[in-house]
Amino acid sequence: MVLDAALSSRASAEGEKRKMPPLPRLHVLTPALHPVCNSSGELFGYGSLSESLSASSPASAPAHRSKSSAFSGDKTREAIAGEDPGEAAIEAVLCAGAPCLQLRCKHGTDAARFALAHLLRQQCVAHEAVFIVNDRVDIAMATDAHGVHVGAQDLPVAVVRRLVGAGRLVGGTCRDADTARRLEDSGADYLGVGPVYTSFTKADLPPPLGLDGLRKVAAAVDIPVIGIAGITPARVPEVLAAGAYGVAVIGAVFSPVPRAGREPDESSTAGTVDAVPGALGRLEQTVTVTRAFLHALAQALGEKSR
Fold first, then answer.
1. Phi/psi class of residue 227: alpha, beta or left (left: φ > 0; alpha: ψ in -120 to 50)?
2. How far is CA 108 from the centre of its chain?
3. What does the alpha-carbon distance between residue 48 and residue 84 come to, in Å, rounded to a whole number?
4. pLDDT value at position 32?
5. The dihedral of CA 235, 237, 238, 242: what is its sign?
6. DSSP 143-174
7. Contact 75, 46 (CB under 8 A)
């Protein structure tokens, strides 16, 4: 009991000293990444579970890759040529000015997840971006992330808040007003609400809430609501009008080639998707395209893009 009290007091003091990071209005979530290793088991990059790794298979990876290799230029083509880019495309997003990056690493060892989170945290700090870890409170704290986002199957928001203290952002996922109020009372700083529209990147999701569903959640709480799923620059004004503070995107940034079932039009692509070659060979191209899309999103949000 004495030890618990001492730890609690120390955590409270540390939380009071740490300044809460600002919550950006534009969040970029990574695809569900997994570690890619060479034949010797050395970590050399990250891909998405749905991408073809034939060009970057473990067997063909250089044996000299080390765990500290970060955004190597010769990985660029293999990382961004497909619809589900990995490590190099994350760098492109940060270079293009994303104000907030949320890491979603669903598979692999904890050591590999920590290595990636540590790397991305350094990159986010270098680019003055907020870094949030999805699901894993321990990884977020171990890498000194700016925040952590948890879903219904993760630790309760109240527990997360107690663990991370007052100095880190805590986000929760919800779809209805009752859950939103409960998460707010539990200590959430913001809520991710969706899917608002049909998702570009995730299957097996519940039916879209639509603007009416988003409006009900936003009206139920005083904390910021972030709309997610199917967000395009053309849709941002109506999402904000429904009460959202900001938006979160995955497929809009990480899918240079439209996916099956996606129906882009001139207003939704903002002149960016059609300009992308079938296979991107240079990181600079990705940065240019991503910057154009993020700029369009930022303008729709009424913010300046970096």
1. beta
2. 18
3. 6
4. 84
5. positive
6. TT-SEEEE-TTSS-HHHHHHHH-TTSEEEEEE
7. no
CB 29 within 8 A of CB 102: yes
Please give the single-letter amino acid code of residue 213.
Answer: G
Q: Which CATH class is domain 26-300?
A: alpha beta
Beta strands 225-228 and 130-134 are unpaired
SS3 at position 180: helix
For the chain, give the longest Cα–Cα distance: 63
- Cα dihedral 186/250/117/166 (nearest 10): -20
Give domain limits for the chain.
Answer: 26-300
The amino acid at residue 256 is P
Four-residue CA torsion sign, 172, 118, 107, 26? positive
pTM of the predicted structure, to 2 decimals: 0.77
Q: Which of 120, 77, 76, 82 is nearest to 98 (CA)?
A: 120
Query: For the segment 44-58, what is each residue's pLDDT rounded down to a tens digit?
Result: 666 664 443 323 333
Residue 155, pLDDT above cutoff 90: yes
Alpha carbon separation from 9 to 139, 188, 306 (Å, rounded): 22, 21, 39
Q: How far apart are CA 272 and CA 154, in angstroms?
A: 36
- Segment 103-117, tens digit of pLDDT: 998 878 888 889 889
Q: Is the dihedral of CA 104, 109, 113, 114 positive or negative?
A: positive
Report pLDDT digits (tens) over 211-254: 999 999 999 999 999 999 999 999 999 999 999 999 999 887 87
Residues whose CB is less than 8 angstroms from the CB of residue 288 and which lie 6 or more positions away in sequence, other chains included:
96
If one counts every other C-beta atom within 10 angstroms of the C-beta of residue 236, the result is 24
